[in-house]
TrEMBL record:
Belongs to the glycosyl hydrolase 130 family. Pfam families: Glyco_hydro_130. GO terms for molecular function: glycosyltransferase activity; hydrolase activity, acting on glycosyl bonds. SUPFAM superfamilies: Arabinanase/levansucrase/invertase. Gene3D superfamilies: Glycosyl hydrolase domain, family 43. InterPro entries: Glyco_hydro_beta-prop_sf, Mannoside_phosphorylase. Signal peptide: none annotated. This is Glycosidase. Keywords: Glycosidase, Glycosyltransferase, Hydrolase, Transferase. It comes from candidate division WOR-3 bacterium.
Length: 326
């Protein structure tokens, strides 16, 4: 399996780094965290925590080295608020964090879940203590979203994954004010047939800015008679026009092989929502949910990913001979 013969992502030995038993209050599972490196060097994970009713909220864990000695806050930091935000009645899930220098705030894009289905909601925070909710920004069914950290030609950009009658593909949309969104543009479609990413694709962690373009981890899903398999692939979006996909990996770079990735509430899932490029500009930490049960960490290197992508990609996001959407 690719990613195992020559692993691009290397798991830390103490995975899972965070598990339900570590939590200071009773929970079912902890997974799919957003991640950010704070100015003082602390790593902050905004963890998705599923309670023992099945409803998710967010809780913060902090660590000096991003690997161990996590300090978990004694109570949730953001819980569903169905009175004011009915779209959250069945929980809030899968936060993805972007620091936005223009606002001097972090933007947290997350899934708000209700009987209408999953929707994308956005909140702003300066301190991860108080959050300003902007409400639903992409109506159901939509998820797997992150805000790009700056404006392009005056417009904010949001990566997200609507489900339409044509399938579950990655889009970028534009907004003048973070509230009103339009000009929806297909960026990266699911492939077809037997491909590893044929059933659905979605953003993994928010893309990393490199001189060569925005490096994007994405998840791809394959439906099999034994259930879904969630794996991770790579794409490179144009630096100035990120709605243009420049390269897309043919193979996945990371898949569920360890027991903690194979066995859990949802089997065979690796699901990154946060990655951190360290100050050396080279080391990348990828935080991911394993089997919808625990939080794990893998390391990789930026130059290695870019070199690999050169050799293992198609130079557009379509596949020659397979027109997916016309
Ligand atoms: C996706 C999301 C993730 C979850 C994954 C596997 O659709 O809901 O939160 O980790 O499915 O169950």
């Amino acid at each position: 399996m690719n990613g195992d013969h020559q692993p691009l992502l290397r798991r830390v030995a103490n995975n899972p780094i965070l598990a339900p038993r570590d939590w200071p209050y009773p929970v079912n599972s902890v997974f799919n965290p957003g991640a950010v490196l704070l100015p003082d060097g602390t790593t902050l994970l905004l963890c998705r925590v599923e309670d023992r009713c099945g409803i998710s909220h967010f809780c913060i864990a902090r660590s000096r080295n991003g690997v161990d000695n996590w300090e978990i806050e004694p109570a949730p930091v953001l819980t569903p608020d169905p009175v004011n935000y009915p779209e959250e009645v069945w929980g809030i899930e899968d936060p993805r964090i972007t620091f936005v220098p223009e606002l001097n705030k972090y933007a947290v894009a997350y899934t708000a879940y209700s009987r209408a289905g999953p929707a994308v909601a956005l909140a702003l925070t300066a301190d991860f203590a108080r959050f300003e909710r902007l409400g639903v920004v992409m109506p159901p069914a939509d998820k797997d979203a992150a805000l790009m950290p700056k404006r392009f030609n005056g417009y904010w950009l949001m990566i997200h994954r609507p489900i339409t009658s044509l399938g579950a593909h990655i889009y970028i949309s534009r907004s003048p004010d973070l509230i009103h969104w339009g000009r929806h543009h297909l960026v990266l479609p699911a492939r077809q047939g037997a491909w590893w990413d044929a059933s659905r694709v979605g953003l993994a962690s928010p893309p990393l800015e490199t001189p060569h373009g925005w490096l994007m981890f994405y998840h791809g899903v394959k439906d099999t008679p034994g259930g879904c398999i969630y794996r991770v692939g790579l794409a490179l979006l144009d630096l100035n026009e990120p709605w243009r996909c420049v390269r897309r990996s043919t193979e996945w770079i990371f898949g569920p092989v360890m027991e903690y990735e194979r066995v859990g509430d949802v089997a065979s899932v690796v699901f990154p929502c946060g990655s951190i490029l360290e100050p050396d500009g080279e080391t990348i930490r990828v935080y991911y949910g394993a089997a919808d049960t625990t939080i794990c960490l893998a390391y990789t290197r930026l130059s290695q990913l870019l070199d690999w992508l050169e050799e293992h990609s198609v130079s557009s996001c379509d596949i020659p001979g397979e027109s997916i959407i016309t």
